[in-house]
UniProtKB/TrEMBL annotation:
The chain crosses the membrane at residues 104-122, 128-148. The keyword Cell membrane applies. Pfam families: DoxX. It comes from Rhizobium azibense. One of its GO terms (cellular component) is plasma membrane. The keyword Protein transport does not apply. It comes from the Bacteria. Signal peptide: none annotated. This is Putative oxidoreductase. It is found in: Cell membrane. Keywords: Cell membrane, Membrane, Transmembrane, Transmembrane helix.
Length: 160
């Protein structure tokens, strides 16, 4: 056997071990980091969407027009829908990014995402699915230790 084929076999045996080590390392990514990235990134998406609905400090005529013509939600007046969406797309992302009432905020925005998916853009399910995963990480696992929710919970745990 030549030296080159021996080295190839040694390298091949080491590959599964190296891969296993990398996978083990990836398994140690802390939930706190994952939750923080989820909160900030999905919060920014909805905040920016809310910003497009404003003209200064009021809901723009264009936003109302979109709810009348393109979005056309059932059971709700377009003027009211535009105002509720603009409010929700500012309040819940701000709370989410701060990590305050995080699970509630993620649940509210997940509900909004479902409405968008079902009634407005049903073909955009890959994007909405990505958003839903961010929300589910927060709903199921909590906002992580880098959040106001964590500090409140810690405070009440000490006083109990």
């Amino acid at each position: 056997m030549n030296e080159e084929s021996t080295m190839t076999r040694i390298e091949a045996r080491g590959l599964p071990q190296k891969l296993s080590g990398v996978l083990r390392l990836l398994g140690h990514i802390p939930h706190d980091l994952i939750a923080l990235v989820s909160r900030i990134s999905i919060g920014a998406v909805f905040w920016q969407s809310g910003q497009t609905k404003l003209d200064g400090w009021r809901v723009s005529d264009n936003a109302v027009y979109l709810f009348q013509t393109e979005y056309r939600l059932p059971f709700i007046d377009p003027w009211l829908a535009a105002h509720l969406a603009a409010f929700a797309e500012h309040l819940f992302p701000a709370l989410l990014i701060m990590g305050f009432a995080s699970r509630l905020s993620a649940l509210a925005l997940l509900g909004m995402t479902l409405v968008i998916e079902i009634f407005v853009y049903p073909d955009a399910w890959p994007t909405h699915g990505t958003w839903a995963v961010c929300f589910l990480v927060i709903i199921a696992g909590g906002p992580g230790r880098i959040s106001i929710d964590h500090f409140i919970a810690r405070h009440f745990a000490r006083t109990a």
